[in-house]
Amino acid sequence: MTAVLQAQGLGKKYGRRWALTDCTLDIPSGHVVGLVGPNGAGKTTLLNLASGQLAPSAGSITVLGGRPGAVPAQLAKVGFVAQDTPTYAGLSVADHLKLGARLNPGWDDALARDRIERLGLDPARKAGRLSGGQRAQLALTIGIAKRPELLILDEPVAALDPLARREFMQGLLEAVAEHRLSVVLSSHLVSDLERACDYLVVLVESRVRVAGEVEELLATHHRLTGPRRDPGRLPADQHVVSASHTDRQSTFIIRTDAPIHDPAWTVSQIGLEDLVLAYMDRPADNGRRPTLEVQR
């Protein structure tokens, strides 16, 4: 399967500060990818590099087989909605569509106008008088009407209320189904990732802690609860992601493909939020370093 994004040793430096260092990633096409991690992990920098707005300071990145932003044809393949869902306050909705048509050779005017009509947006209304949710929908419409192969969204719903978030995500999923887009979506809201994403990347301190299809990740991660035990005593095929202990009890989140037969353990499945938090909180050395990538 064609890779939608590949990074090898990727880094970006601002002055003396590295915002992203030694990031290696390989994302297959045809997915809605959730990119999640703590503040300062390098998520926005990675997405700006992928969209061609920044040039790497180290390493390499390719998007859809080409260097981001290298030529107009490469730019046309990627749609981008930034964190503040940028629109021009003094321009009307119709003006935004006209601007989109002028700037994008593959612009689908019928798609854009149909979507604006379905959203109930007044074409004559200035963007500055729209609600936050309406501005986000306008920005998404422009990104989709560009007819990209890849749509990059950098926390597009972070500032929206729950209803506006739900409507935005519903519109995104409809567009993905209709136009067969690949999507990379950065978000702090795991509930949005659960609803929309079928592929997950957890980025912490510029490094990929885990990456893979959500269904597979959830099937291979388990919570073990039982008598206090050192992680080093677990079977070699049980990769410890996180561990916590009381005086008498240990709780581990592990990744394994093998059945768990030890009767001392109570085994339970974990949800996506548990999985994300386990990798975000995992110490640098917890007794057994887990395999960071779950990719095929």
TrEMBL record:
Molecular function in Gene Ontology: ATP binding
Keywords from the named record: ATP-binding, Nucleotide-binding, Transport
SMART domains tied to this protein: AAA
Domain ABC transporter residue range list: 5-230
PANTHER family, A to Z: ABC TRANSPORTER ATP-BINDING PROTEIN ALBC-RELATED (PTHR42939)
Name of the featured protein: ABC transporter ATP-binding protein
Origin species: Actinomadura vinacea
